[in-house]
Amino acid sequence: MPRSPGRPQITRMPVTAADLTDAVELPVPQGLTIRHVTDRPGMRDLVNAYAEPLGFPSEAIDTMVERKLEYLSRDPKLIHLVGLLELTGGGSGRRE
Q1: What contacts 52, CB < 8 A, 6 or more positions away?
Q2: CA dist list (Å): 41 to 16, 37, 65, 68
Q3: Backbone angles phi, psi at 66, to 5 degrees
Q4: CB 8 within 8 Å of CB 1
Q5: What is the pLDDT of residue 40?
Q6: Three-state secondary structure call for residue 33
Q7: Please, where are the H alpha helices in the chain?
Q8: pTM for the whole thing?
Q9: Would you say 9 and 3 are in contact if contact means Cβ atoms under 8 Å apart?
Q10: Taking a C-beta distance cutoff of 8 angstroms, is the pair 29, 85 a contact?
Q11: φ/ψ (deg, to 5) at 52
Q12: More exposed terminus of the chain, fewer Cβ within 10 Å: N or C?
């Protein structure tokens, strides 16, 4: 995993990327919205969504957010998308 000069590696995780240029249209669950993450609060939400389930330490969150924002600033082709599913029908109404 490439590291920025002078920064310690805090963790390893798989990179997930896909070229969606020719994506096939699939059925979309009701209540699903896809959002382009472009700012610090959105990136924090994104990182928080996967950090705990994947076992990342909570003290690494800030560093992970900063690194993701740094990567975005260096490569205009790189984007982060997040899917938000609004639960309905007797659920808590929270987003997943």
Answers
A1: 58
A2: 21, 9, 9, 12
A3: -60, -40
A4: no
A5: 93
A6: strand
A7: 40-51, 61-74
A8: 0.60
A9: yes
A10: yes
A11: -65, -50
A12: N
Q: Are 10 and 18 in contact (CB under 8 A)?
A: no
Overall residue count recorded for the chain in this entry: 96
Report helix, strand or coil for 72.
helix
- Calculated CA dihedral for residues 48, 54, 56, 57, nearest 10 degrees: 90
Per-residue pLDDT 10s for the chain (96 aa) are 444 555 566 556 556 667 777 777 878 888 888 889 989 999 998 998 888 888 889 999 999 999 999 988 888 888 888 888 887 765 544 444
Q: What are phi and psi of 85, to 5 degrees?
A: -115, 115
DSSP readout, the chain? Answer: ----TT--------------TTPPP----TTEEEEEE-SHHHHHHHHHHHHTTTT--GGGHHHHHHHHHHHHHH-TT--EEEEEEB--SSS---B-
Structure tokens at 88: 């309905």
Which two structure tokens, joined as six digits, stand for 54? 């994947």
Distance between CA 62 and CA 59 in Å, rounded? 7
Strand pairing category for 32-37 and 80-85: antiparallel
